[in-house]
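Fig. S4 source data, part A: sequence.
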Amino acid sequence: MSHQHSGGSSWRRRLIGLTAALAIPTGITTLAVTAQAHAAAGSAYYVDCSQSDNGDGSQSSPWNSLDSVNAATFGPGDQILFARGTTCHGALTPQGSGASGAPIVIDTYGTGPKPVIAGDGATDAVLLNNQQYWEIRNLEITNHGATAANRRGVHIVLQDFGTGNHYRLTNLTVHDVNGADTKDLGGSGGVQFDVQGNSVKTKFNDVVLDGNDIYTVDRSGINMSSDWMCRASTGYEGCNPGRTNTYYPWTGFVVQNNTVHDIGGDGIVMQYTQNGLAQNNVAYDTSARPNGDNAAIWVWNADNVMFQYNEAYATQKLPDNGDGMAWDADYGTDGTVYQYNYSHDNVGGMAMFCGCGDQAGAATTNATFRYNVSQNDGSQVLRDYGENNGMFYNNTIYEPAGSTAEILTTGGPTLTLANNIIVNNGSGGYDYNGTTFTNNILSGSSTSNIPPGQITADPQLASPGSGGTGLGTVSGYQLTAGSPAIGAGTVIPNNGGHDYWGNTVPAVCAPDIGANQYSTPDDSSCSGSNAHLRTVASGLTNGTSRKRHLP
């Protein structure tokens, strides 16, 4: 499979423009501007590991080893600059913390390729431990040992620290980390954030991972974990009676513009965050090695996390992997939103609602999947395995001839599917188990167990099955004139405001079905005679078709 993201750059720039008004956590500033301020605030230290003699850290006499860097304690505004085109062997463990407005910056100088930090099998190639106000950018980081062991590329740890503020990982290339089959606290992978300890409530605040390329690592691409994860609402089995570390969510956590691929287990996992944001990421060829249950980009034990403009493909589902899908709103989450994402060719399917536990409150709650596109996702396109008040609406799904993927498995009575286009030319069907279906187009050659009362006509998509690699390659899933999807949806409150392509979605008039809002109705014209259109919030019953009206 080609990994060229056709149309990806221009599409991504357009998406950034579309989302400029999104609320980004306080403290995220333009890196170029802050870098200029940093240079004036502290001292610069230079490292050139190609030099035969160790200097004093000045540009004319740079340090020549990581030992010199690790022996120093840095302060607010300091810069540690590595010579491009060079390789430093060993672990980078610099000491000290920056301050608000004056973080410590690790960057480069000179010309040529990124400087390499080669961990050579260390536990961590780059480690920050109980430090804050750091920015690390433009490095290549490897950590390959003689045999697989518990190890990481970048590891940032807080233990009984309180709140750790301001971390930036930008434009890093992290690869060849042959970690062990471990995740969660101290797990193996490319980038790992950990909160440890049980005496001082501790969390991360104001973290941005932006533009990193992470590949050929085990087990996780980007992951995070915390000892402070116990809350009664989830009933998490690790929260034993008498355990004191109650839930303390991280704030201001953003993962954007990253690419993760050839990952043994999970691609990107957002955990223990409140109002976190994962956008414009690409994950492919994840769950690539036997490592238990994994997915591409997902969330666990976190609230109000937003996933948008991400692409996931070629997620594997090996014999020991029960998941293998692109998206997953998982255990102990509340208010997760997946919108404007594109998944294709994922062996385990498109998405899952997963409570995945028998404890009270373990189900994912109030999760929403909307305006996403799925093409040729396998196994179980949508899996419902423990959710409360799940919403799956205005998505467009296409399964080609020969597909055996089940469209919905183990659906439950608190799940609503509305305004979706599902073209199923394969043999899989629906196990809907009381799930509410309303105003969906369920078409294609398969008639296996289709829920009653839905539209079965051809939705007249522009060119279904023509999507490639890249968010901008799916124009074939736009509607064409005369489509039965036009104006046939049900009104859903708080619908996000626009479709996959940025077109405005009406708030009062009946929307179009699927991920494309083709028509342009005027809400003011619907405020009178059409204002009685029934909405999902008013309560829907199984087996509705097209518009619903109040009696």
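Fig. S4 source data, part B ends here. Confidence is low (pLDDT under 50) at residues 1-40, 529-551.
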